[in-house]
């Protein structure tokens, strides 16, 4: 077997050997919480994760989001038991699983690669883990029928993987996880090998699947759209550290630092450097060319006067008006049609400001546009350390 096949075999067995033969009314074991405490993982001389804490509630869909190399897959694989931890602990359903074998953790894992057995039919791929663990035939048939109905695999059960499309193969891989009736489902970038249309379709199916199962799911991706649409809560990671953990709406609207602010959003959050100062008793942001009243901004503590800071504003909060007089004006440097909206880029004294615009007002490169944004709908960050003020 290849290394991938070996990992697949481990994942096939995980969560099945000790699974109860009688499931609850929903056909599942009860979803479990996952608690990671002070987790440190070193691979050789490289520290991938250090002193990381993560709490996943039972029944949640938690997404681990971040750029390549941030440690998100390493964290997922440590929960699965495929990577030994250097320090810390991992609990599943209140039971210490730090050194438990993968098969004893009651988890199911879906890899980025479909990793299907090419000589087996879809039906036998789905039932393989149950067969090697001695599950009764009637129970195997019940679980396979249930998973194939959920994922619309019924007409494909007799086909081999080579006769399936990419989306169908990934549904089989997901179905192979469902039949295990595990306490925790782990997904390692399962949609990254698919084209944009298939990703959208399977993303919707995954969300609906979670709603039907009510299972605990932990999902790794670098795609912010997947994270925002799938997660009940998301953990944004960088350099083995969780930068922010919260609901997608919270993380998007109130990023904890500049990394989170610029990693989420398409286009990324607009940033302008300046100074926070008091004017007539009210806090204002001031740059070389812009002054903005931010008295409605929800500061974490009383703002310091003359503090170097960075102002961030989402593209959808920048209002562009053509042919109007205003104190803030800029040249249109680029227009990107996006179907139901367009992105208008403004050259503001050398800084590029993006605006998401849904009007049909004619606009062309080189035009002069007025723009504005509300001081209550911005983010302010300390320039020194990048943390939210």
Automatic annotation (TrEMBL):
Keywords for this protein: ATP-binding, Cell inner membrane, Cell membrane, Membrane, Nucleotide-binding, Sugar transport, Transport
GO MF term (any one): ATP binding
A Pfam entry, by short name: TOBE_2
Protein name in UniProt: Multiple sugar transport system ATP-binding protein
UniProt cross-references to InterPro entries, sorted A to Z: AAA+_ATPase, ABC_transporter-like_ATP-bd, ABC_transporter-like_CS, ABC_transpr_MalK-like, ABC_transpr_MalK/UgpC-like, Mo/tungstate-bd_C_term_dom, NA-bd_OB-fold, P-loop_NTPase
Record flagged with keyword Cell inner membrane: yes
Every ABC transporter domain range: 34-264
């Amino acid at each position: 077997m290849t290394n991938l096949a070996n990992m697949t075999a481990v994942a096939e067995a995980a969560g099945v050997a000790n699974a109860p033969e009688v499931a609850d009314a929903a056909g599942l074991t009860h979803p479990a919480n996952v608690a990671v405490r002070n987790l440190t993982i070193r691979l050789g001389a490289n520290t991938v994760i250090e002193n990381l804490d993560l709490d996943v509630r039972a029944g949640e869909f938690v997404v681990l989001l971040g750029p390549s190399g941030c440690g998100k897959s390493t964290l997922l694989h440590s929960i699965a038991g495929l990577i030994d931890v250097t320090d810390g602990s991992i609990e599943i359903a209140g039971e210490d699983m730090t050194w438990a074998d993968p098969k004893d953790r009651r988890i199911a894992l879906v890899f980025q690669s479909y990793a299907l057995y090419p000589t087996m039919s879809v039906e036998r791929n789905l039932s393989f883990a149950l067969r090697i663990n001695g599950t009764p035939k009637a129970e195997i048939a019940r679980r396979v029928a249930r998973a194939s109905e959920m994922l619309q695999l019924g007409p494909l059960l007799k086909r081999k993987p080579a006769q399936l499309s990419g989306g169908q193969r990934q549904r089989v891989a997901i179905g192979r996880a469902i039949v295990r009736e595990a306490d925790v489902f782990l997904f390692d970038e399962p949609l990254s090998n698919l084209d944009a249309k298939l990703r959208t379709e399977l993303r919707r199916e995954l969300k609906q699947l979670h709603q039907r199962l009510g299972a605990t799911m932990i999902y790794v991706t670098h795609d912010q759209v997947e994270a925002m649409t799938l997660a009940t809560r998301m953990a944004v990671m960088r350099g083995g550290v969780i930068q922010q953990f919260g609901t997608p709406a919270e993380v998007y609207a109130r990023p904890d630092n500049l990394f989170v602010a610029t990693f989420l959003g398409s286009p990324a959050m607009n940033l302008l450097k300046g100074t926070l100062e008091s004017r007539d008793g009210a806090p204002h942001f001031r740059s070389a060319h812009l002054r903005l009243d931010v008295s409605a901004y929800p500061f974490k503590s009383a703002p310091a006067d003359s503090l170097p800071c960075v102002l961030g504003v989402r593209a959808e909060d920048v209002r562009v008006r053509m042919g109007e007089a205003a104190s803030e004006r800029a040249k249109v440097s680029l227009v990107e049609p996006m179907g139901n909206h367009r992105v208008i880029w403004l050259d503001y004294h050398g800084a590029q400001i993006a605006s998401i615009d849904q009007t049909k007002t004619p606009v062309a490169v080189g035009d002069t546009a007025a723009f504005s944004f509300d001081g209550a709908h911005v983010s302010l960050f300390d320039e020194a350390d990048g943390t939210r003020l």
